[in-house]
Amino acid sequence: MKTSNKILLSVGAVAVLAACGGMGSKGGNAGFPSADQAIASSWENIPAGWEKRLVQDDTQKVCSAARDKPSKADAERVEKMNLAMKVVYPASGKLVGDWKKGEAIAQSGYGMRVGDDAPNRANGGNCYACHQMTKAELSFGTLGPGLNQYGKLRGNSETIVKYTYDKIYNSQAFSACSNMPRFGHNAILNPEQIADLVGLLMDPASPVNQ
Ligand code: HEC
Q: Which residue's alpha carbon is nearest to atom 5 within ligand 1?
């Protein structure tokens, strides 16, 4: 590319940036859609029932405005709001399920994709994307705390079992603006799957506790 073209391009880029700055400072959008409108209009063929995924709920609004660093008062409000939300438990009443199934769910990142999901294949929890859970698994993310030895360290009192279930169900009830998805609240995982994950974390026979 010739130097003169390069200069012209850079001047163009600066002009565009300046225009954006001007738009922002005036608060108008000069005929362009807002980010919310652009997002809403770019999803024309979403599966039925997914519309609400495009609209922030009150928790997300508070957390977005605070860039996930809420004030003490906002954090308390978010946690209180989420604690008051419904938690559905497995019909069996058993909160500690099968750790082997739990391990498969923790390993799977399947699901929640637009249009592509096999209808009868269950969503995964993708827990390893953020947590170390077992010593054996070498590939894990570190956005969340390591959960290896979880049951061994915490014991398996009813309180801890219930906390663990409720935490996976709705992380925001205990830690406002957490990066952890609200698996039960947002119907990513069903109650039986969540109980199986509690099994993975709590069961003395689970690889988490070896
Ligand atoms: C996108 C990242 C992410 C994913 C995926 C994720 N978590 Fe978390 N998790 C976190 C973060 C960050 C924390 C710490 C903040 C908090 O407590 O919410 C956390 C905290 C936790 C805690 C509380 C630990 C404690 O010390 O009390 C548990 C239990 C937990 N996660 C289990 C899971 C399970 C089970 C899954 C899979 C179904 C999962 N997480 C998926 C990010 C994630």
A: 127
